[in-house]
Design brief:
With 306 residues, the chain is α/β, with parallel strands linked by helices. The protein is built from ten helices and twelve strands. The strands form three sheets. Strands 3-2-1-4-5-6-10 form a seven-stranded parallel β-sheet, with helices on both faces. Helix 1 packs across helix 7, helix 4 packs parallel to helix 5 and helix 6 runs parallel beside helix 8.
């Protein structure tokens, strides 16, 4: 983790969604930098729920939180389509509670709100840049567009020191949602079973440790007020079809199985331009797709042994 070294040290940081996929990588990285991390985990200590603003305000004051990284969300597109209200409550209400609590806190100096490429809409051939309008269409994308706009509103109206991240598909060890293509295909490959392909849409993939380095770079740069109110895309630019991704995983996992096709509703590809993050934050991916997948496969191989 030496490549994650920043000037962020001795900070009191709240991470929401800390036990989720990205949070489980980001929280230890922040601690390793020499920071004090409070993890807001639903039903655990400190017991909390981002849908309860009194709880959030109390935590910010009790732990004198200086920085907030708001990752907590309902992230599954299918779940949002099947039952949108829990997604709206978590992703929209939860975000405005975080922002309002931060506005009222005498300690908070930096807030990062996690958005997504889906906030831009259904996709187009040209890569999206941060200046493009947000146009979420389906429940998940709409919820993230709203959260993103709320963050911008709190900066414009109240001067809240908030910045926004917009990422595409993130992969790596620790993602236990096996409906996602990378953990799903790795599990099938390691158990000698055929992966079933779902759709043909191109997707972008970025290794989780590269996303973590992006968050750390942004948090570090937020000492400069010019960064406040801005959004940053993080993408390694690796765009693959499900078949291409599956074949890469099978090859790296030394699997003799072959994928089989199955009908699935496709969504248009969404491509992100990360030129701004590279220019302003000095961020760039460290891991190639092959390196990231090898590290990911190794993590799951050890996980399944346990």
């Amino acid at each position: 983790m030496d490549n994650w070294r920043t000037d962020i040290v001795n900070r009191r940081i709240l991470v929401t969604g800390a036990t989720g996929f990205l949070g489980s990588w980001l929280s230890p990285a922040l601690v390793q930098q020499g920071n004090y991390v409070t993890r807001l985990v639903r039903g655990r200590h400190p017991k909390g729920n981002i849908q309860n603003i009194r709880c959030v305000i109390g935590i910010l004051r009790q732990f004198e939180i200086q920085d907030i990284i708001h990752l907590a969300a309902q992230p599954l597109v299918k779940d949002a389509n099947d039952d949108p209200l829990p997604t709206f409550r978590t992703n929209i209400l939860g975000t405005w509670n975080i922002l309002e609590a931060a506005r009222k806190s005498p300690y908070t100096e930096r807030v990062i709100v996690a958005s997504t490429d889906r906030a831009y809409g259904e996709g187009r051939k040209k890569p999206y840049s941060e200046e493009d309008c947000l146009h979420g269409v389906r429940p998940y994308g709409v919820s993230k567009s709203c959260a993103d706009l709320l963050a911008q509103s709190y900066f414009k109206t109240y001067g809240l020191p908030v910045s926004i991240t917009r990422c595409g598909n993130t992969y790596g060890g620790g993602d236990l949602n096996f409906s996602r293509i990378v953990p799903y295909c790795i599990r099938r490959a390691l158990h000698g079973k055929q992966p079933v392909l779902r759709g043909k849409s191109i997707r972008g993939y970025t290794y989780v440790e590269d996303i973590v380095s992006g968050y750390l770079a942004l948090l570090n740069k937020m000492g400069n007020r010019k960064i406040h109110g801005q959004a940053f895309n993080f993408s390694a630019g690796n765009y693959l079809t499900p078949l291409e991704m599956t074949n890469r995983i099978l090859k790296l996992a030394n699997s003799k199985t072959q994928p089989v096709s199955h009908g699935w509703a496709d969504l248009p590809a969404i491509r992100l331009s990360s030129k701004k993050a590279r220019r302003v934050l000095g961020w760039k991916p460290k891991y190639s797709m092959e390196q990231g997948l090898k590290r990911t496969i190794k993590w799951y191989a050890e996980y399944f042994k346990r």
